Amino acid sequence: MIRVELPYHLRNLANVGAEVQVDVSGEVTQRAVLDALEASYPVLRGTIRDHLTLQRRPFLRFFACEQDLSHDSPDTPLPESVARGKDPFMVVGAIAGG
Amino acid sequence: MSNVRVLVGTKKGAFVLKSDGKRQKWEVNGPFFAGWEMYHLKGSAADPNRLYASQSSGWFGQLIQRSNDGGKTWDAVDNKFVYDGVPGTHQWYDGTPHPWEFKRVWHVEPSLTDPDTVYAGVEDAALFRTTDGGKSWHEMAGLRGHGSGPKWSPGAGGLGLHTILLDSKNAGRMYIAISAAGAFRTDDAGTTWKPINQGLRSQYIPDPTAEVGHCVHRIAMHPSRPNVLFMQKHWDVMRTDDCGESWQEVSGNLPTDFGFPIDVHAHEPNTVYVVPIKSDSEHFPLDGKLQVYRSRSGGNEWEALTNGLPQRDCYVNVLREAMAVDKLDKCGIYFGTTGGQVYASSDAGDTWAPIVRDLPAVLSVEVQTLS
């Protein structure tokens, strides 16, 4: 089980708590985790990644294990402690005022 | 007895205001979608309990919400707005080509006859339609395919398609308006479109009478007289009597003809309302006095309506989507401000009172008259 931490507005949208768990078969990458997250919560499609390009939305960042993974390739394996379910993969809203 | 439901979109959520036909006591429900920008909400004329709402955020993008119970509960529907084919370019602010990019939905317009059919006006400007209640959206590509798209440029708020008017007497006819491209009409249900901007004059474009490039802020129509349209342009209040083939200025004695919303009395097709704003550089009322202006003659002769509105130290704006009318007798007029007030008049504008004073900045106001 992969732990995914969501920002406030996406929790409300998906009607979940701060953290959800998703199953990922195969290598645990950003793409695999987000695919699994969107499959479990279709309302999140388009809110984290662009529908067509699947690129991260500009005002969101991805953190895990005190690292900023926002600019990593979506196919780079996530840290082992995320893959083992010890640490969460965090979707974070960038601080941008308002 | 009839009831009134006012759908209010704000910078930080949506609100549903309810009253009976007297429109004196109001129930305020919300915020719905707290923290999100709610650009526009509108109910279906074919099923008043079917509502659609545009929900967006700079962080999380666009969502469309649908309610089947008059706004008590909502469900997200499809939010995938993909331009048909290769989107191409429009003009950027400096005149250079800029790629078409979807940003948000400015306006939702349910069909007059089918609650599952809805039109959506989006930024960057295009018209989308769903025929399955929002499960899927498809661009009506004939509009951007008209050929003038590369000459469209954004207004200060973006290149948004904000006005969608459906002709109740001619199912094939529809009007739309884009800031800053102008007004367009289709007579074949959206397959082909023509710009209808003859008579508009805009000093901020190289050719002031160009076919496209005009910053139309809002167009209003009375359903009984769909050939007659009233327009609040960036500057100038305009009128057409021939479906947009030609426009005449009807600003008349308005103290300033800059503004955003415009609407028509529910029972008097020649009675029109605007909210004059000082200028495009100073988006607030003249002299700190919030005044609605009413013309009972279809333009040119205007009277200030001030009873109940602040007449000193008022520096709010009233945005293009933020005025609506009900169908009761007497006609109710409603508008919201960027200061968070929603004002209502239950006597066609003669007197006003706030329904609420302290909402987030109001982006849109729509009214449903329910029996």
What does this structure look like?
- The complex is a heterodimer of chains A (98) and B (371).
- Chain A contains 3 helices and 5 strands, in the order E-H-E-H-E-E-H-E.
- By secondary structure, chain A is α+β, with helices and mostly antiparallel strands.
- Chain A is globular.
- The model of chain A has no long low-confidence stretch (mean pLDDT 95).
- Chain B is mainly beta.
- Chain B has no helices and 30 strands.
- Chain B has strands at residues 3-10, 13-20, 27-32, 37-43, 51-57, 61-67, 75-77, 89-91, 97-99, 104-110, 118-123, 126-130, 138-139, 160-166, 174-179, 182-186, 194-195, 216-221, 229-233, 237-240, 248-249, 258-264, 272-277, 292-295, 303-305, 323-325, 333-336, 342-345, 353-356, 362-370.
- In chain B, a hairpin with a 2-residue loop joins strand 11 (118-123) and strand 12.
- Chain A binds chain B through residues 7-10, 12-13, 43, 45-48, 50-52, 57, 59-60, 93-94, 96, 98, and chain B through 34-36, 57-63, 76, 79-80, 82.
Which range best describes the helical content of chain A: under 10%, 10-25%, 25-40%, 40-55%, 55-70% or over 70%? 10-25%
Low-confidence stretches of chain A: none
Strand coverage percent of chain B: 35-45%
| Oligomer classification | heterodimer
Adjacency order of strands in the biggest sheet of chain A: 2-1-5-3-4
Strand percentage of chain A: 15-25%
Topology order of chain B in helix (H) and strand (E) letters = EEEEEEEEEEEEEEEEEEEEEEEEEEEEEE
Q: How would a textbook summarize the main sheet of chain B?
A: 4 strands, antiparallel
Number of helices of chain B: 0
Number of helices of chain A: 3
Mean of residue pLDDT values of chain B: 97
**Beta strand count of chain B:** 30
Largest interface: A-B, 21 and 14 residues
- Helix/strand class of chain A: alpha+beta
N-to-C CA distance of chain A? 35 Å
Structural class of chain B, please?
A: mainly beta
